[in-house]
């Protein structure tokens, strides 16, 4: 690790004798550093300073905010190799995949640096000749976020960049498993000239304690959360007392559908990309596969061959494509899902082995039926259960049979079928002949119990702005 990596460890870490949070490499089970656990009084102090900083920041012209965000983006790109290494060491994903996340995360900073200058209002035709009506957009104020461990950089920039572009200040509670990436990306923001009280990372041994402060503090006017539906639901309830704005990106149970007219080779490539990225630890990854009868065996055979070729290991090592699960609880859950599915009648077509440490062999399960528990479970691991189907209408019913509605995917070469299926799927995002759908220019978000609000695209900055209506009379 070079400049930014060394600076991050120097600025963010503290000794194990302090009230510190240990950061552990999941591939080696070794401590790579410590971060401070702030007292609740310290977090309240951060919020007070953030409120002052926000007023000063909002008063600056949008072009100035845009210029600083652009410089932040440039520094992230310049330090992308170091940032990727930090991420792999603390999170476990392969180095090439970590580098991809850094570039992806940086794209939001660049996009919203441009959107900062486009927060347009409207002029409205008045109902009488002596009035003039218009709207303007203003920042909501102090915004806070709770971000997950599976994308420790991108889930911060996807929220922080629009908040700062809109004129908000931003306080993040990054996951205790992966805080060094958060500290590193924030250090680069400071180097770009973004005020330190404007963008702040806070951690505590108790994530619940930080969440309670974010939800109850009167000066925080917006909370953004990415995580489980269970936790998101609780945060919504807590925020209701002070009527905070919230946006929630919650759990998923994405169907991946292969129709009989699909390009099977392309479907297999998409399945690998969607299912096994980050060892299956993503909210939008394919969670259950539906394959039409006539191409079922062909798809399974090619899918098994492709999965068997994946290299499992420490993400720092060259050629590794599947890293470890994040912790022992995650591994226990994944192995438990495999065992339960087998007990309910599933067949292991490939994998299913405990590889030691936090590694699980990528797994394909066949003879899956809709009533099995694994079909309704967000697996969050490298396990692909495959279900046969016959008719399109049957498929739609099965695919929509979930409380979640985040991402979905299907492969077909028939235009009419593509439009019909896309419109019928009850999900916020649909990948058609594509296994990777996320980017900065498109709105990311779900429906049903996968949450509400959108990140990225032109809609992302509106999550951090309020519309004010102005009525001029006596004209």
Automatic annotation (TrEMBL):
Q: Which UniProt keywords apply?
A: Oxidoreductase
Q: Where is the active site?
A: 249
- What Gene3D superfamilies does the annotation carry? Aldehyde Dehydrogenase, Chain A, domain 1, Aldehyde Dehydrogenase, Chain A, domain 2
| Pfam families in UniProt | Aldedh
Name all Aldehyde dehydrogenase domain ranges. Answer: 18-469
- Biological processes, Gene Ontology terms: gamma-aminobutyric acid catabolic process
Say if the entry is tagged with keyword Oxidoreductase.
yes
Keyword Oxidoreductase included in the entry's annotation: yes
Q: Which InterPro entries match?
A: Ald_DH/histidinol_DH, Ald_DH_C, Ald_DH_CS_CYS, Ald_DH_CS_GLU, Ald_DH_N, Aldehyde_DH_dom, Aldehyde_DH_Superfamily, Succ_semiAld_DH
In its UniProt record, a GO molecular function of this protein is:
succinate-semialdehyde dehydrogenase (NAD+) activity
Q: Which family does it belong to?
A: Belongs to the aldehyde dehydrogenase family.
Protein name per UniProt: Succinate-semialdehyde dehydrogenase (NADP(+))
Taxonomic lineage: Bacteria, Pseudomonadati, Pseudomonadota, Gammaproteobacteria, Vibrionales
């Amino acid at each position: 690790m070079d400049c930014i990596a060394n600076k991050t460890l120097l600025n963010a870490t503290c000794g194990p004798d302090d009230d510190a949070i240990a950061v552990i490499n999941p591939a080696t089970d070794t401590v790579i550093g410590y971060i401070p656990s702030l007292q609740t009084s310290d977090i309240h102090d951060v919020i007070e300073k953030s409120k002052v900083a926000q007023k000063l920041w909002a008063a600056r012209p949008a072009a100035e905010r845009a210029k600083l965000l652009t410089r932040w983006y440039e520094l992230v790109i310049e330090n992308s190799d170091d940032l990727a290494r930090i991420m792999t060491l603390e999170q476990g994903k392969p180095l090439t995949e970590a580098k991809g996340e850094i570039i992806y995360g940086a794209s939001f900073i660049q996009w919203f640096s441009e959107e900062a200058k486009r927060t347009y209002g409207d002029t409205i035709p008045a109902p009488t000749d002596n009035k003039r009506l218009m709207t303007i957009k203003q920042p909501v104020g102090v915004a806070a976020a709770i971000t997950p461990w599976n994308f420790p950089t991108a889930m911060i920039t996807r929220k922080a960049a629009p908040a700062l572009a809109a004129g908000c200040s931003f306080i993040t509670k990054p996951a205790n498993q992966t805080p060094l990436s958060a500290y590193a990306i924030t250090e680069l923001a400071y180097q770009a000239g973004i005020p330190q009280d404007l963008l702040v990372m806070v951690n505590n041994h108790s994530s619940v304690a930080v969440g309670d402060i974010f939800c109850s503090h009167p000066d925080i006017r917006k909370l953004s959360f990415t995580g489980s539906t269970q936790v998101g639901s609780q945060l919504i309830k807590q925020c209701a007392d002070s009527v905070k704005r919230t946006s929630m990106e919650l759990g998923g149970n994405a169907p991946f559908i292969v129709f009989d007219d699909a390009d099977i080779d392309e479907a297999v490539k998409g399945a690998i990309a969607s299912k096994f990225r980050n060892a299956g630890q993503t909210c939008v990854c394919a969670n259950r596969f539906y394959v039409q009868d006539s191409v079922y065996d062909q798809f399974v055979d090619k899918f098994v061959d492709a999965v068997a070729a994946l290299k499992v290991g420490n993400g720092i090592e060259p050629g590794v494509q599947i890293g470890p699960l994040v912790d022992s609880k995650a591994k226990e859950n994944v192995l438990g899902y495999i065992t339960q599915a087998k007990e309910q009648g599933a067949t292991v077509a490939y994998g299913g082995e405990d590889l030691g440490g936090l590694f699980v062999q990528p797994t394909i399960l066949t003879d899956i039926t809709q009533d099995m528990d694994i079909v309704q479970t967000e697996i969050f691991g490298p396990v692909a259960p495959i279900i046969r189907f016959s008719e399109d209408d049957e498929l739609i019913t099965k695919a929509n049979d979930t409380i979640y509605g985040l991402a979905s995917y299907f492969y077909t070469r028939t235009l009419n079928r593509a439009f019909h299926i896309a419109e019928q799927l009850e999900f916020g995002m649909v990948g058609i002949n594509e296994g990777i759908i996320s980017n900065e220019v498109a709105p990311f978000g779900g429906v049903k119990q996968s949450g509400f609000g959108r990140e990225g695209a032109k809609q992302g900055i509106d999550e951090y702005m309020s519309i004010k209506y102005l009525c001029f009379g006596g004209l």
